[in-house]
Design a protein that fits this description.
Blueprint: E1 2-6, H1 15-24, E2 29-35, E3 39-40, H2 48-60, E4 64-69, H3 77-93, E5 97-101, H4 109-128, E6 132-136, H5 146-155, E7 161-166, H6 167-172, H7 177-184, E8 188-193, H8 206-209, H9 218-227, E9 233-236, H10 246-276
Parallel strand pairs: 1-2, 1-9, 2-4, 4-5, 5-6, 6-7, 7-8, 8-9
Antiparallel strand pairs: 2-3
Helix pairs in contact: 3-4, 7-9, 9-10
């Protein structure tokens, strides 16, 4: 399994620092954060020189570039235009996927229609530059659960569009994340992973987002991920640590990797043993 870190975890530090410690903690790849106000490790205005610097930095560390997260309100035209510029930068970086949420409001049909229209526009823009748009299923937004994600994929049948699955969003709205993985398996092209307290609506503080410290059924989710044959990247996405000291941030990444690596190894061993029986 290809496992990386979203650089939003290192939002208080520059990209060079993030790459150094992502490599040190044993991950194979990186998801670049392009989130205004949180972590903008790749900008929508990055020059070709800056793009090459990023490629060199990541390549020299022996890491892969898996994706870009560019969370924003896509119902605002200026934000959609920014997203399109991020798509262009991702393509120049050789990054295959950009992920953004749907915006809108859950159970608001007018906003949902607006979101679907915006997603279609962005899927077309992603396809035009040769990348994929992974729509992140997100608590509180128009596309927030299994039902709305399936509706989106039925209404926007664009080859550049897929889903970004995050169990902490699906689980907090009451869906079984394992059942959701099964239902959405044909559409998932990227995955975010972390822990949280599923019984509360807000994402827990960073220490409880560390894999194994919350109530997200990560072992079951990992087993289902292997079972459905998912071959894409899995990116650790932990938010809220921008003000943390660097040793704390590195500890979050390291502890999460150790826990998740063990879960994936056990799930793969279990799957192989079942096949050989």
């Amino acid at each position: 399994m290809k496992m990386g870190v979203n650089t939003v975890l290192f939002g208080g530090y520059d990209l060079k620092t993030a790459i150094q410690y992502i490599r040190f903690t044993g991950y194979e790849g990186v998801e670049l954060s392009s989130i205004v106000g949180m972590a903008e490790h790749v900008s929508d205005t990055a020059s070709d020189t800056e793009i090459q610097e990023i490629r060199n930095l990541v390549g020299d560390a022996g890491l892969e570039l898996y994706s870009v997260e560019a969370a924003t309100d896509i119902l605002v035209e200026a934000n959609r235009e920014r997203s399109k510029r991020v798509f262009e930068r991702a393509a120049k970086l050789g990054i295959p996927i950009v992920t953004i949420g749907s915006s809108g409001v859950s159970e608001d049909e007018k906003k949902t229609q607006e979101s679907i229209q915006a997603i279609h526009e962005l899927a077309q823009a992603a396809g035009d530059v040769g990348i994929k748009f992974a729509l992140k299923i997100h608590y509180g937004q128009s596309v927030y659960n299994t039902k709305t994600a399936l509706r989106l994929m039925e209404e926007v049948k664009h080859p550049a569009l897929g889903l970004n699955f995050d169990a902490t969003h699906i689980g907090r709205v009451g869906d079984d994340p394992v059942a959701a993985l099964e239902a959405l398996k044909d559409h998932i092209i990227h995955m975010h992973i972390r822990d949280t307290l599923l019984e509360q609506l807000q994402i827990a503080p960073p220490p409880l987002q560390i894999a194994g410290r919350g109530t997200t059924p990560l072992a079951d989710i990992v087993r289902k991920t292997i079972e459905i044959g998912y071959k894409g990247a899995v990116s650790l996405e932990i938010i809220g640590a921008k003000s943390f000291d660097l040793p704390q941030v590195v500890a979050i990444a390291a502890e999460s990797r150790g826990y998740l690596k063990r879960l994936f190894e056990e799930a793969e061993e279990q799957t192989q043993s079942q096949v050989s029986v």
